């Protein structure tokens, strides 16, 4: 069975530029994030730790 489902999308964190695969993403409240830091809103002010991405609170 084939599907045309989108499998990648931008992290839902507004300041994050990472593209995440839905299968790998951290899901929270129906949104997809590249990691726990983004999903939790960067509680410690730390970035997502992805190279070249400077998103944080
Ligand atoms: Zn990022
Ligand atoms: Zn992110
Ligand atoms: Zn982020």
TrEMBL record:
<dbReference type="GO" id="GO:0046872">
    <property type="term" value="F:metal ion binding"/>
</dbReference>
<keyword id="KW-0480">Metal-thiolate cluster</keyword>
<dbReference type="InterPro" id="IPR017854">
    <property type="entry name" value="Metalthion_dom_sf"/>
</dbReference>
<dbReference type="Pfam" id="PF02069">
    <property type="entry name" value="Metallothio_Pro"/>
</dbReference>
<keyword id="KW-0479">Metal-binding</keyword>
<dbReference type="InterPro" id="IPR000518">
    <property type="entry name" value="Metalthion_fam14_prok"/>
</dbReference>
<protein>
    <submittedName>
        <fullName>Probable metallothionein</fullName>
    </submittedName>
</protein>
